[in-house]
Design goal:
Blueprint lengths: L3 H63 L21 H7 L6 E7 L5 E9 L4 E5 L8 E6 L2 E11 L4 E6 L8 E2 L10 E7 L5 E14 L2 E6 L11 E3 L4 E11 L2 E8 H15 L9
Parallel strand pairs: 7-12
Antiparallel strand pairs: 1-2, 1-4, 2-3, 3-6, 4-5, 5-6, 8-9, 8-11, 9-10, 10-13, 11-12, 12-13
Length: 284
């Protein structure tokens, strides 16, 4: 009988230890299952967001295809315009600032596309583009590499036809600003913008003539760009930003020109003075 009690004690201690280990194991297993469930929920949320983004991108592509018939566009844009191909050397360096070049889409009240053009994205979640084709738009979106970002008009100038658009999109590269002093007649320039299919592209030409009037300083160019390139950035061979592309109809003739970078700077300064919020340190 005396041997029986120690044996019972040993058995009780043994099973008690097993129970304690099992309890800890179950607790750890429960934590692991909870963590796995959380990861699964995060994956499902990510997939839902991805599907939503793909659906929005497909919607934009379908709207672009629908508007290919020419509704809302000038007749000249239905023509296949001749385009000079930029040199391979420029192609290699242009990709370093492709995050600064975006597409700009304007929608009407029925959510139909009324304008597709280009813009130059600054570091402060702002895009510089052309104003007149966006004037009647009820909603604006910024597009970059298939992704769409909501946007609003922050400030515009009727004379220069330039606009500052606010957006959540931010570029990954920093622009180098040129000056009027660096623009010469006969100088080779490169126009970077987005095509009607919202694909990043660029064309090559030269500065053919200086234009000075009450609206500001501008330069004619030999680049026969379509409307989608309006608002696009004009650069020299060193990727210094020289200005923004625009068009005007004078005497029944369509004139392609570049608003100088000084006009862009003036616009930013006006906006800074009116809002006291736009940082101008990048213009130095």
């Amino acid at each position: 009988m005396r041997k029986f009690f120690p044996l019972c004690a040993i058995i009780i201690i043994f099973f008690g230890s097993i129970s304690e280990v099992s309890s800890k194991g179950l607790t750890s297993l429960g934590l692991a299952i909870g963590h796995a469930n959380k990861l699964q929920q995060e994956r499902e949320l990510f997939e839902a967001q991805r599907r939503l983004l793909e659906a929005e991108t497909r919607k934009i592509e379908q709207e672009i295809e629908t508007n290919r018939s020419g509704a809302g566009y000038a007749d000249e844009d239905r023509k296949q315009l001749p385009r000079a191909k930029p040199s391979n050397a420029f192609k290699r360096i242009a990709v370093s600032i492709d995050s600064n070049i975006v597409g700009v889409i304007g929608y009407n009240e029925e959510n139909e596309i009324v304008a597709i053009q280009s813009g130059v994205s600054l570091a402060e979640n702002s895009v510089i583009s052309a104003w007149k084709r966006l004037r009647g738009a009820k909603r604006i979106a910024i597009v970059h590499k298939g992704l769409s970002f909501a946007a609003t008009v922050n400030f515009y100038d009727e004379n220069s036809d330039l606009v500052i658009i606010g957006t959540s999109y931010s570029p990954t590269s920093r622009l180098k600003f040129g000056s009027n002093d660096s623009i010469k007649i006969g100088q080779k320039i490169f126009l970077l913008g987005y095509t009607r299919d919202l694909v990043f592209s660029f064309q090559e030409g030269i500065i053919s003539e200086a234009i000075k009037n009450s609206s500001g300083s501008a330069y004619k160019t030999t680049i026969p760009f379509p409307n989608e390139f309006i608002g696009g950035g004009v650069f020299d061979s060193t990727l210094s930003w020289l200005g923004s592309a625009d068009k005007a109809n004078i005497g029944g003739e369509s004139i392609q020109f570049v608003w100088s970078i000084e006009e862009v700077k003036k616009l930013v300064i006006k906006y800074s003075e009116s809002q006291n919020s736009f940082k101008t340190r990048n213009l130095k």
